[in-house]
Amino acid sequence: MANTSEIKNGLCLEHNNDIWSVVEFLHVKPGKGPAFVRTKLKSLTSGKVVDNTWPSSHKIDVVRIERRKYQFLYKDDMGYNFMDNETFDQTTIDPKLIDNPGFLKEGETIDVLFHAAKDIPLTIEMPQYLIFEITYTEPGLKGDTATNATKPAKIETGAEIRVPLFINEGDKIKVDSRTGSYVERVKK
């Protein structure tokens, strides 16, 4: 057990039968009345973000989280299969724990957050930027670049994203894995 004076960004705690990560916090000492801590918490199991306020010196349950490197192997009927980079053990992870599973490509190394005491996977963190090759897109019209127009394109994992009109099949692009949006074209 800890108290609210130990809250900091990134701290993981158990609250309302769920595990939460502190995204933001603010210790408030009003001129009148007791002090309190206002937080923004993100659920590690569902991804939901909520605001929560605790009185100063309130007891909280801190949870120890381990970050382990895993390599994505393949997807089957059971879920997504990963291999631990240190022990070479394989594990299957439920698709609900992955924010953008369409951006997982074979051989990609990702971080899996585990509840240290129970040794269960909580969520998956992919690198912020990933590089993909465009496998299919319609050709852009010449001269139609006055606006920030976009067109659909399929990447090598099968996911579809929106790209600028000048992107062609075979181009490599950088994609933001959190939002699924095009960032830039990668030089070959």
How does this structure look, described?
- With 188 residues, the chain is mostly beta strands.
- It has 3 domains: 2-62, SH3 type barrels, CATH 2.30.30.30; 65-125, OB fold (Dihydrolipoamide Acetyltransferase, E2P); 129-186, OB fold (Dihydrolipoamide Acetyltransferase, E2P) (Beta Barrel).
- It contains no helices and 16 strands.
- The strands form 3 sheets. It has a 6-stranded antiparallel β-sheet, with no helix packed on it. The chain has a 5-stranded antiparallel β-sheet with strand order 9-8-7-10-11, with no helix packed on it. A 5-stranded antiparallel β-sheet has the order 14-13-12-15-16, with no helix packed on it.
- The termini are far apart.
- The relative contact order is 0.13.
Q: How many domains make up the 3D coordinates?
A: 3
Total number of strands: 16
Radius of gyration: 21 Å
Cα shape: flat
How are strands sequenced across the largest beta sheet? 1-6-2-3-4-5
Q: Label the CATH architecture of the largest domain.
A: Roll
Instruction: Quickly give the structural class.
Output: mainly beta
Low-confidence stretches at least 5 residues in length (pLDDT < 50)? Answer: none
Q: Would you list the SSEs in sequence order as H and E? A: EEEEEEEEEEEEEEEE
The whole-number mean of residue pLDDT values reads 88
- End-to-end span in angstroms? 53 Å
CATH topology of the largest domain: SH3 type barrels
Helical residue percent band: under 10%
CATH class of the largest domain: Mainly Beta
What is the count of DSSP helices, taking H or I runs of 4+ residues? 0
Portion of residues in beta strands equals over 45%
**Quick one: biggest sheet?**
6 strands, antiparallel
